[in-house]
Design brief:
27% strand, nine-stranded mixed sheet, alpha/beta
Length: 492
């Protein structure tokens, strides 16, 4: 067979944001697929999104329900999703309940009725939901149920239609049930409760004819239906931009000088310091400087509302209300307590597309971690690495803040051990001098070139952060308890 003789398989959109990317471009047309999972994990909603995305009057969809409840009851709830279009019922999409036939004629009657309806309508999509429950309800022997399952699978696979079998299986059944061998695609949906959070994930366990993204992918059910988030989101299909020679101003002239002219465009910068040292203010001045330079920006906040963030900036003479109104700035307040990093990155990527943003602030990493569901906190460092790599690959300059516990005997760096994720690090800290608690700032790291080695004092004023001179005549400054030069060193 030559390259020209190969059969081209059309890929159909799933109607689920993010899922086409996971599948490798969509679902193969005429494939026979199984959607499996526990009750309430979104199997039926996933199938509905697919049929509403693809069914037409010329290529209709048949949706068979074998549950005891009538189709009208199911549709009453499905109509609440924004993808549901009532005008397409009967013309494009027909729902057929087989509960009565199951009670009167058993599994054999179900198989005959499905065959008759399909031959009459010649649909492009067929869904059977959920025959697994039906098999449990009838008191037939195991061999007959298995034969019914296999025959239904073979029947679905034989039609020139994209077909789905929805069932509530356990993973152990994969080895024993022949229907899994016949299936072209197998999608497993999981959900579990982690403390007070519900975490949902999906896995493409099998998909013939194309390369899907392996592993577990997060998904969420909203009023728009399912939305999937690939675990490789942002890392595939994107070429890293050529490193830029451009430097971005921090909005503080003296700090720009310490950084050798500003932050290299496309870098990831970490601002580390204890509570009250001005991390968020420094981040706000960075965003405001970008707005003034015509560079749109995004701020992802986890510890305050967008309106509070803009009001606080105004108290330092920084106008964020105007760019918020004209669309050159977006302040994203992400849903707390059950997020995943992939969801956060999708929100940010969408905002970048809307605004063409060049600068991003994440304030703060501590708030970010606390907003995650417990299971996602375990992989926080790995997920954060993927997110930063993907976003800087788009040419976005990222400033993240991290809060640290202050020590007056050493210079701790990060409770997250994430310095390897960042190109540049600025450290803010308190020191005790002359009976006063004062603040110092230093640039600890810059991958993009030389930087100042000075330790500088700074103050938080009504105009923002103002950097002063080097504290001279002291040693042990970075311990937080400096001594005047010439005095005895602290005892060990």
């Amino acid at each position: 067979m030559t390259q020209q003789d190969k059969v081209m398989i059309k890929k159909l959109p799933t109607g689920v944001p993010g899922l086409d990317e996971i599948l490798g471009g969509g679902l193969p047309e005429f494939s026979f697929n199984i959607i499996a999972g526990t009750p309430g994990c979104g199997k039926t909603t996933l199938a509905h999104q697919f049929i509403f995305a693809n069914a037409t009057p010329e290529r209709p969809a048949l949706y068979f329900t074998i549950l005891g409840e009538p189709a009208l009851k199911m549709l009453r709830y499905q109509q609440q999703y924004t993808f549901f279009d009532l005008s397409r019922l009967n013309g494009c999409i027909r729902f057929i309940n087989l509960g009565q036939i199951l009670a009167e004629r058993g599994l054999t009657g179900i198989l005959e009725e499905i065959s008759k309806e399909v031959e009459s309508a010649t649909p492009s999509i067929v869904v059977v939901d959920s025959f697994r429950t039906a098999a449990r309800k009838v008191h037939e022997d195991k061999m007959e149920v298995q034969a019914f399952t296999q025959n239904l699978g073979l029947l679905l696979a034989s039609w020139e239609a994209t077909t789905f079998l929805i069932g509530e299986y356990s993973e152990e059944e994969i080895r024993d049930n022949p229907v899994f061998t016949v299936a072209d695609g197998l999608f497993w949906l999981y959900q579990r409760v982690e403390r007070n959070s519900v975490v949902r994930k999906l896995q493409v366990m099998k998909l013939r004819g194309q390369t899907s993204v392996p592993g577990l992918h997060t998904f969420r059910i909203t009023d728009a239906g399912l939305q999937a988030f690939s675990r490789t989101l942002g890392l595939t299909g994107r070429k890293r931009k050529v490193p830029s020679e451009k430097r971005l101003s921090m909005g503080i002239p003296e700090l720009d000088k310490m950084l050798g002219g500003g932050i290299p465009e496309g870098d990831s910068l970490l601002i580390a310091g204890s509570s009250g040292t001005g991390k968020s203010l420094l981040a706000t001045q960075f965003i405001a400087a970008g707005i003034r330079a015509g560079e749109p920006g995004i701020v992802a906040v986890f510890e305050e509302r967008p309106e509070e963030y803009a009001e606080r900036a105004g108290s330092f003479g920084l106008d964020l209300q105007t760019p918020l109104r004209d669309g050159s700035l977006e302040v994203i307040y992400l849903r707390p307590l059950d997020l995943s990093v992939d969801e956060t990155m999708q929100e940010i990527l969408d905002a970048i597309k809307r605004t063409n943003a060049k600068r991003l602030v994440i304030d703060s990493l501590a708030g970010f971690e606390m907003a995650l569901a417990p299971g996602f906190r375990t992989d926080f460092r790995e997920s954060l690495y993927r997110m930063i790599f993907a976003l800087t690959g788009l040419g976005v300059t990222i400033l993240s803040t991290v809060e640290m516990e202050e020590s007056f005997t050493e210079l701790p760096f990060s409770t997250y051990s994430i310095s390897f994720l960042t190109d540049d690090i600025i450290r803010l800290r308190y020191v005790e001098m002359e009976g006063q608690l004062r603040k110092i700032l230093m640039v600890l790291k810059m991958r993009g070139g030389a930087h100042s080695k000075d330790i500088r004092e700074y103050e938080i004023t009504s105009k923002g952060i103002v950097i002063g001179e080097r504290p001279t005549g002291y040693e042990y400054l970075i311990t937080g308890i400096p001594r005047r030069v010439g005095r005895d060193s602290p005892q060990k």
